[in-house]
Amino acid sequence: MSIAIIDYGSGNLHSAAKAFQHQADPMGLDVVVTSDPHALKTASHIVLPGVGAFGDCIAGLRKLDGMIEAMEDAVIKGGKPFFGICVGMQMMLKRGLEHGEHAGLGWIEGEVVKIESRVQSSESSELKIPHMGWNELTLVQPQHPLFKGVADEEHAYFVHSYHARCEAQHVLATVDYGGAINACIGRDNLVGTQFHPEKSHRLGLQLITNFLQM
Description:
The chain has helices at residues 13-24, 39-42, 54-62, 67-77, 87-90, 201-212, and strands at 2-6, 30-34, 43-48, 82-85, 93-96, 102-103, 108-114, 131-139, 155-160, 162-166, 171-176, 180-187, 190-193. The protein is an alpha/beta fold. The protein has one domain (2-212): 3-Layer(aba) Sandwich (Rossmann fold). A hairpin with a 3-residue loop joins strand 11 and strand 12 (180-187). The radius of gyration is 16 Å and the shape is globular.
């Protein structure tokens, strides 16, 4: 079996592939970075990374002939585990409002909006945007299989100016950045993280292992 990491020109594939391969090796799984929709048929797990603007990323994904249809067949109809990372997570939603309005995959009802400039509760200075660096997770659904061996307040690495808004039932974890921001969302066989697991050290590797066991 193999893990397919979809390559649509968004960048950051090397570090993501390296982290997934590190955790996949003990399980006897291969990691394939691919822009071929046919590769999704034989993959056991599918990963959609993302770096950059929502509109650019979804446009790059749509340029891969047959890829979105193959993703729908494998993930929505076939039930294969899916992991969206950063903008890859954002594209799971219905629309993104970064530099205009852009239709997403629509797998989870919701939208991607800019982080509001908010004053920190304990300081007079405004929070910096983008939200960049380490921050603590609050597990909203700690029983979710993605969080096996993960405790509240573990640190994850974020780099983003936009965030996902969706129904509470789909929120798996949040992060406090002048208020709660959705850090992890999901439903059924779908999970997504706003943070980068491949840059989040122990936490990230644990999440990847848990995903591969889904």
